[in-house]
């Protein structure tokens, strides 16, 4: 999924965004609504990054959408767009999305299946809800790559998630390890991601690594996390120091997304769909995308970032992308400044 905001936030994330002491404290991050497209756009709820928090482990972006009846709107139509320095995680509760990218991948995102795209030095892709879809509901998550991995060659993988039970709850793990089971997808830092389905009036205690930060996003109903109420679309952030997450549902069955990981010890700059380390890198990424995909500027034929041997990232190569590539927004007129807590 692309960040389609015309004036995307300038975010520099560093060590001052991490808790200075281990407390296990739980705080609530409220979402902001972001339209994904034009006048009849699908609305997504974005909880990360926020004013209160920029990252949870290596997780730097959390979008939550649906349930959306795509028969009455445009559904998800995200034309080809670029990414650098991150991994995109697509996870659905309902519906189906078609994915195509510039390294030749063609896949369908379906409930219970992880689609993981590692952008590395640069990739472009498109995402479109299929004609078979009536209700679309899911999350799009981004993971920042550590410095040692952020220039890897891009690749794509798809995996069926692994399920475990904890009391009456079901935990479906799609990245990392939790509840005694492990997913197989390639990651570059210690992270985890899982869907948790909790029946009504149920309390579970989930053991987690106290060295890690955790977030619990509520997709359906409402819950309490370590005694703190969390409403639908909100994200509960739990600082390092917690060895157990106590989750309790109310009168309705609840569905949650759990993310977590070791605190990310590197400073990153995130703007539009790019993750880098400096303002100058972001400028270079934008320049390369505009030249390669939009035709504005000279392409570095020796080392293009977003066009592979599989062809152009837009409609001109006949690979089935929907629409022309998205042009990048205008860069800010000032240098990126650190985002303070």
From TrEMBL:
Which residue ranges does the record assign to the Pirin N-terminal domain?
Answer: 44-143
What Pfam families does the entry give? Pirin, Pirin_C
Q: Where is the Pirin C-terminal domain?
A: 195-292
Q: Which InterPro entries would you find in this protein's record?
A: Pirin (IPR012093), Pirin_C_dom (IPR008778), Pirin_N_dom (IPR003829), RmlC-like_jellyroll (IPR014710), RmlC_Cupin_sf (IPR011051)
Where are the stretches annotated Disordered?
A: 1-23, 304-341
Under the heading SUPFAM superfamilies, the entry gives:
RmlC-like cupins
Source domain of life is Bacteria
Q: Which family does the record claim for this protein?
A: Belongs to the pirin family.
Q: What is this protein called?
A: Pirin
Q: Which organism is it from?
A: Agreia bicolorata
């Amino acid at each position: 999924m692309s960040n389609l905001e015309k004036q995307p936030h300038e975010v520099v994330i560093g060590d001052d965004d991490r808790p200075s002491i281990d407390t296990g404290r739980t705080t609530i991050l409220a979402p902001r609504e972001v339209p994904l497209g034009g006048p009849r756009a699908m609305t997504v709820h974005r909880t990360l990054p926020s004013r209160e928090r920029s990252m949870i482990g290596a997780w730097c972006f959390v979008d939550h959408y649906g349930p959306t009846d795509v028969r009455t709107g445009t559904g998800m139509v995200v034309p080809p767009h670029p990414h650098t320095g991150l991994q995109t995680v697509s996870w659905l509760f309902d519906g189906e999305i078609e994915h195509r990218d510039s390294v030749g991948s063609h896949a369908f995102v379906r409930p219970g299946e992880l689609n993981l795209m590692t952008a590395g030095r640069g990739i472009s892709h498109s995402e479109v809800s299929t004609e078979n879809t009536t209700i679309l509901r899911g999350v799009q998550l981004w993971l920042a790559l550590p410095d040692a991995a952020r220039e890897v060659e891009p690749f794509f993988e798809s995996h069926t998630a692994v399920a475990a039970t904890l009391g009456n709850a079901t935990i479906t793990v799609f990245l990392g390890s939790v509840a005694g089971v492990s997913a197989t997808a390639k990651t570059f830092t210690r992270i985890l991601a899982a869907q948790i389905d909790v029946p009504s009036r149920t309390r579970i205690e989930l053991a987690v690594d106290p060295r890690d930060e955790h977030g619990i996003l509520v997709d359906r109903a409402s819950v309490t996390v370590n005694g703190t109420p969390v409403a639908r679309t909100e994200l509960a952030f739990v600082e390092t120091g917690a060895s157990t997450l106590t989750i309790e549902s109310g009168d309705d069955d609840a569905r949650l997304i759990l993310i977590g990981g070791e605190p990310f010890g590197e400073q990153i700059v995130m703007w539009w769909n790019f993750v880098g380390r400096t303002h100058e890198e972001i400028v270079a990424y934008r320049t390369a995308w505009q030249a390669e995909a939009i035709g504005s500027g000279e392409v570095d034929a020796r080392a293009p970032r977003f066009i592979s041997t599989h062809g152009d990232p837009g409609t001109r190569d006949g690979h089935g992308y929907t629409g022309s590539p998205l042009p990048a927004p205008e860069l800010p007129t000032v240098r990126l400044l650190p985002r303070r807590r």
